[in-house]
């Protein structure tokens, strides 16, 4: 067993990093498990990936769930179906026993983590609890009573089993304690980092602003949920106020064609392709504001990426967002019921003050360097794991 030493002279731990999908693949869950495991490995820990887990019955339940959504209001969540849960948890337990690790790390693993073999410390990481996302997040709306009861039980049992519980926001941490009776001493808020292969250097993104109009950027995979329609309305409002404005929406397409002066839609860019990744980085560098009128979000990783590029965010204060964006530092929070007028007012006020905009660019980058990066996350989480 690897017993290299990590910072502080403490022995490294052999960590079974268990995920339903392939946690070593940067494409899984937007790369968050990949960056988590990499940061823990960089602290000297011996990371062994366990996953993908096996649930042969899952395709049947996916098809059944799709059928229910087509013909009925209520549906089940295929990953919370009793047979799927049983297969995932049994496979995880079998592989963990064979590995005999010092610690199990299970990001978003409530489907199986409740069944981690006794005697092995469990670290559970998530960006929300089921109580928070029920009827809030689009993947958890209109669930059947059975699906709700199962999801609730899995969340409660996993939190009760975990020796260490990690969230990126106080929003989620408070729910674990309030709604599931988690021991506050086991719950910790550790902000997540930017899922970037290479963070830009500070000098490359700060300095003299490129002349031209006010440039807005929105990156998201779901047009409706990310509020792209509101972003387009904000573009129109700003131009009506006499503010020359451009908006780039990347990662999604509207349900029906949208034509508006100053609007550019890029349906998809693959961050794992060098050329496309460079183009996305250029979008960040050229923008003045990252605009995200999201309707439901737990911890949008794009806000960390925006901060890495020194880009202030203008975003709806919903879910875990207020813990990723600090008012006046990394951006502006608008109320949950904000309209195009509210977004346009916030943007035009700051854009009219170049010195304030530059200060926010610098403080956004400062926030990335001090707390919104995976190196800081890995260092703190490694110390917490050592305490186990």
State the main characteristics.
388 residues, alpha/beta, Rossmann fold, 2 domains, six-stranded parallel beta sheet, 14% strand, disordered N terminus, Glycosyltransferase_grp1, transferase, hexosyltransferase activity, Glyco_trans_4-like_N, Glycosyl transferase
Question: How is this fold's topology laid out?
Answer:
Elements: E1 14-18, H1 32-42, E2 46-50, H2 58-71, H3 82-99, E3 103-107, E4 122-125, H4 130-133, H5 145-161, E5 164-167, H6 170-180, E6 187-189, H7 202-205, E7 214-219, H8 228-240, E8 245-250, E9 263-266, H9 274-286, E10 289-292, H10 301-308, E11 313-316, H11 321-324, E12 331-334, H12 340-351, H13 354-370, H14 374-386
Parallel strand pairs: 1-2, 1-3, 3-4, 4-5, 5-6, 7-8, 7-10, 8-9, 10-11, 11-12
Helix pairs in contact: 1-14, 8-12, 10-13
Plain-language structure description:
- This is Glycosyl transferase.
- InterPro entries: Glyco_trans_4-like_N (IPR028098), Glycosyltransferase_grp1 (IPR050194).
- This protein starts with 13 loop residues before the first strand and ends with a helix.
- Helix 8 packs across helix 12 and helix 10 packs across helix 13.
- The chain folds into two domains: 194 residues, 3-Layer(aba) Sandwich (Rossmann fold), CATH 3.40.50; 169 residues, 3-Layer(aba) Sandwich (Rossmann fold).
- By secondary structure, it is α/β, with parallel strands linked by helices.
- It contains 14 helices and twelve strands.
- The chain is 41% helix and 14% strand.
- 46% of the residues are buried.
- The chain is globular.
- The strands form two sheets. A six-stranded parallel sheet has the order 2-1-3-4-5-6, sandwiched between helices. The chain has a six-stranded parallel sheet with strand order 9-8-7-10-11-12, with helices on both faces.
């Amino acid at each position: 067993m690897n017993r290299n030493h990590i910072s502080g002279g403490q022995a490294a731990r052999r960590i079974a990093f268990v995920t339903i999908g392939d946690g070593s693949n940067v494409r899984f869950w937007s790369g968050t498990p990949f960056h988590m495991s990499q940061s823990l490995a960089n602290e000297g820990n011996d990371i062994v990936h366990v996953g993908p887990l096996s649930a042969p019955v899952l395709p049947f339940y996916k098809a059944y769930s799709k059928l229910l959504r087509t013909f009925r209001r209520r549906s089940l969540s295929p990953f919370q179906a009793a047979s799927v849960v049983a297969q995932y948890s049994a496979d995880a337990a079998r592989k963990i026993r064979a590995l005999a690790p010092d610690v199990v790390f299970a990001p978003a693993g409530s489907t199986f983590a409740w069944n981690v073999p006794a005697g092995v410390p469990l670290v559970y990481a998530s960006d929300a609890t089921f109580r928070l996302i029920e009827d809030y997040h689009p993947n958890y709306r209109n669930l059947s009573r059975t699906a709700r009861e199962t999801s609730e039980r899995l969340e409660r049992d996993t939190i009760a089993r975990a020796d260490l519980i990690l969230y990126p926001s106080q929003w989620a941490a408070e729910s674990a304690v309030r709604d599931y009776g988690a021991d506050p001493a086991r719950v910790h808020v550790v902000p997540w980092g930017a899922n970037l292969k290479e963070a830009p250097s500070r000098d490359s993104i700060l300095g003299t602003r490129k002349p031209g109009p006010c440039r807005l950027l929105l990156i998201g995979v779901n047009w409706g949920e990310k509020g792209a329609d509101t972003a387009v309305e904000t573009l129109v409002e700003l131009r009506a106020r006499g503010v020359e404005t451009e908006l780039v929406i990347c990662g999604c397409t509207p349900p029906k064609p949208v034509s508006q002066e100053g609007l550019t839609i890029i349906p998809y860019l693959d961050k794992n392709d060098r050329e496309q990744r460079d183009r996305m980085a250029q979008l960040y560098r050229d923008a003045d504001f990252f605009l995200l009128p999201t309707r439901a979000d737990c911890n949008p990783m794009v806000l960390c990426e925006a901060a890495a590029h020194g880009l202030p965010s203008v975003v709806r204060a919903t879910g875990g967002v207020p813990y990723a964006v600090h008012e006046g530092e990394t951006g502006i929070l608008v109320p949950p019921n904000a309209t195009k007028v509210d977004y346009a007012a916030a943007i035009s006020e700051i854009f009219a003050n170049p010195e304030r905009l530059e200060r926010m660019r610098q403080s956004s980058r400062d926030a990335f360097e001090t707390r919104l990066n995976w190196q800081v996350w890995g260092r703190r989480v490694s110390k917490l794991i050592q305490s186990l």
